[in-house]
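Consider the tokenized backbone below.
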């Protein structure tokens, strides 16, 4: 926060008052920035969609410390619980890196276990690669073999596919308000308030419209 500038929560409130804006979303927030004011804005402003992105990056405290993330795995776990309590039905996305310098098999397992426990809606997965100018690039050897990074990546990817498949199955038969964004071949693509992709076959022009849609099929990536 800077003097004279609105907080993100205040900005969302100001934008909510603009005529013609149907839905508001904001992207990645550091877990330490996810304060009560921002959660209250998401919970109470009808135009702000119930979707939160908070990267955990790893589920092991030593790796998190080496990343200089400024929180522990348990603090992240408690934040997810707090968000779900304040915003029932919220979807939560995370970012996770595998193969950070020095990451052992046991430390990777901690990341696997945390994602298995929390069952988040989206996990953006990445294999570590040195970024020029960062502390890790200057001070930590890139010592996890590329083949092992790929193995860990695939393990998390498979786990997350199963988690999402289970979450999406819970939408089966429900009616969701979908905001349609574009036509892809013969189908219209839109999103639920929780940022799930939904495809609908119809001859109607749905661009920019919100329609109630009954979910009749679910998969791990779309409905």
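A designed sequence for it:
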């Amino acid at each position: 926060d800077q003097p004279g500038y609105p907080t993100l929560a205040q900005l969302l409130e100001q934008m909510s008052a603009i005529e013609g804006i149907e839905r508001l979303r904001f992207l990645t927030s550091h877990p330490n920035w996810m304060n009560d004011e921002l959660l209250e804005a998401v919970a109470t402003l009808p135009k702000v969609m119930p979707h939160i992105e908070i990267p955990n990056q790893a589920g092991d405290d030593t790796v998190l410390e080496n990343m200089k993330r400024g929180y522990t795995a348990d603090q992240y776990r408690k934040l997810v619980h707090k968000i779900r309590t304040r915003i029932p039905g919220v979807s939560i996305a995370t970012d996770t890196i595998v193969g950070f310098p020095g990451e052992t098999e046991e430390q990777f397992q901690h990341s696997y276990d945390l994602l298995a426990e929390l069952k988040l809606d989206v996990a953006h997965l990445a294999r570590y690669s040195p970024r020029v100018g960062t502390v890790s690039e200057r001070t930590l050897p890139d010592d996890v073999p590329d083949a092992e990074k790929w193995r860990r990546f695939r393990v998390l990817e498979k786990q997350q596919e199963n988690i999402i498949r289970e979450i999406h199955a819970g939408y089966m038969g429900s009616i969701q308000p979908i905001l349609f964004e574009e036509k892809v071949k013969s189908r219209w693509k839109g999103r639920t308030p929780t940022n799930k992709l939904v495809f609908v076959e119809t001859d109607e022009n749905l661009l920019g419209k919100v329609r109630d849609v009954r979910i009749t099929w679910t998969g791990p990536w779309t409905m």
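The CA atoms of residues 158 and 208 lie 34 Å apart.
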